[in-house]
Amino acid sequence: MAEDDVTPGYRDIPEEDRKKANVFFDHGKKMSDTGSFEYAIDMYLSGLKIDPENVEAHNALREISLKRKVSGGKPLGMMQAREYKTNTSDDKQNLLNAEKLLAYDPGNTDRMVTILQSAHRAGFFDTVLWIGQILMKANAEGKKPDFNKFMILKDIYKAIDRYTEAVEACHRAIQIKPHDMELATEAKNLAALQTMSKGNYLSGKSFRDSIKDMEGQKKLLDGDKDIRTADSLMRAAMDAEEEYNADPNEPGKLTKLVEALV
């Protein structure tokens, strides 16, 4: 599988960084188990700064934020919230700051949108898929679903070739504006792209798993290439030996045999 089969813009996280981040995640879990939710939130965010594509960590952080809310935790105050800017030129930091704010106010769909858009711009597509499904559900189940949020979801899903999710977002937008003919046409086009992309290597997989699949296939191809190379060298040696046996007095044949064997 060619490297350009990966959706352009995706950023994979090195294995070394993933291991470093796990130290913070493990510590965060211990803090959460003792009820130190705010300290646990900071630990998980420190880990996500190293490995922002760890979906399990994102899920764990969200679970902690929900536990904190149930236990009476309040959103950050206005002055505190201002410390976590989400409109800078650093999309990774925007993502982390928005997730910090969301951790203190887990139902805030505007924070979810910021995480979604920042993760997309930064190339963290597994994070896009993680927050996308949360945003889709939260917006759909809200008292007044926001048309624009479904459109944002649709456009980002389309940009990363996730047509099944893009179709769902588009249909939910149509439920709000059923007479929008342009949107109905786009829904048909997305459905066609969805059909054509079925069986694609990304279907049902995370982007990180797809990278692993690609690496595995590359190793198989490289191994097959090595075997083919060895076979061709063996054949060359056998041919040179036959030529030498047929005419052992010819010096050039002996030289050719020695080179082939080497």
Please, could you describe this protein's structure?
This protein is mainly alpha-helical. It contains 12 helices and no strands. It folds into 3 domains: 7-142, Alpha Horseshoe (Serine Threonine Protein Phosphatase 5, Tetratricopeptide repeat), CATH 1.25.40; 145-204, no CATH class; 207-262. Helices cover 73% and strands 0% of the residues. The radius of gyration is 27 Å and the shape is flat. Mean pLDDT is 85; it is low at 223-228.
Keywords:
262 residues, mainly alpha
What's the short version?
With 262 residues, the protein is mostly helical.
Compressed to H and E, one letter per element, the order equals HHHHHHHHHHHH
Structural class: mainly alpha
- CATH fold topology of the largest domain: Serine Threonine Protein Phosphatase 5, Tetratricopeptide repeat
Give the amount of beta strand, in percent: under 5%
User: How many helical stretches?
Assistant: 12
Average pLDDT taken over every residue: 85
Shape: flat
Relative helix content = over 70%
The overall strand count is 0
Distance between the termini: 34 Å
Number of domains: 3
Shape-level CATH architecture of the largest domain: Alpha Horseshoe
The largest sheet, given as strand count, sense and whether it forms a barrel, is:
none
What is the CATH class designation of the largest domain?
A: Mainly Alpha
Poorly predicted tracts of residues: 223-228
User: Rg to the nearest angstrom?
Assistant: 27 Å
